[in-house]
Amino acid sequence: MNNLPQLQVVGLTWGHISWDLLALPPQDIILASDVFFEPEDFEDILTTIYFLMYKNPKVQLWSTYQVRSADWSLEALLYKWDMKCVHIPLESFDADKEDIAESALPGRHTVEMLVISFAKDSL
Questions:
Q1: Which residues form a coiled coil (predicted)?
Q2: Domain residue extents for the chain
Q3: N or C terminus: which one in the chain shows less Cβ crowding within 10 Å?
């Protein structure tokens, strides 16, 4: 409906480099929604993203992230994998924050938009 080019969908397991992943052409943007759910998966996710960024240093990961605990942080892993992260305020999407980050869970849940890329010294 949006006249997009044909898209290739590849299943993957975070932290594992498959033949399908190796065969992907260079990407501009990787879209991910709420992939940073369990802290024990954070490094596997960033390992896979690092591989894709290594193939194409200009690619960016755009992801939403729901802050579930102040103890869960990507900062050390981003540093380890030589990546940087820019937080995009939900308000910049010209919509009410509550409408964007709806949740049926009790209490307030902070949802952030992250753009992750290689740190400048990596390029």
A1: none
A2: 27-118
A3: N
Which among 42, 55, 37 is positioned nearest to 15, based on CA atoms?
42
Dump strand ranges (E) for the chain. Answer: 29-33, 60-67, 83-88, 110-118
Q: Which amino acid is at 80?
A: K
Q: What is the pTM of this model?
A: 0.76
Q: Does domain 27-118 fall into CATH 3.40.50.150?
A: yes
DSSP symbols for 15-46 = T---HHHHHPPP-SEEEEES---SGGGHHHHH
Q: Which residue did the predictor score with more confidence, 13 or 104?
A: 13
User: What span, in angstroms and rounded, lies between the C-alpha atoms of 13 and 27?
Assistant: 18
Taken as a whole, the chain contains a residue count of: 123
Look at residue 117 and tell me whether its pLDDT is greater than 90: yes
Convert the pLDDT of each residue in 45-94 to its tens digit. Answer: 999 999 999 988 999 999 987 777 767 778 888 999 999 999 887 777 66
Q: Do 81 and 50 form a contact (C-beta atoms < 8 A)?
A: yes
State the pLDDT at residue 16.
93
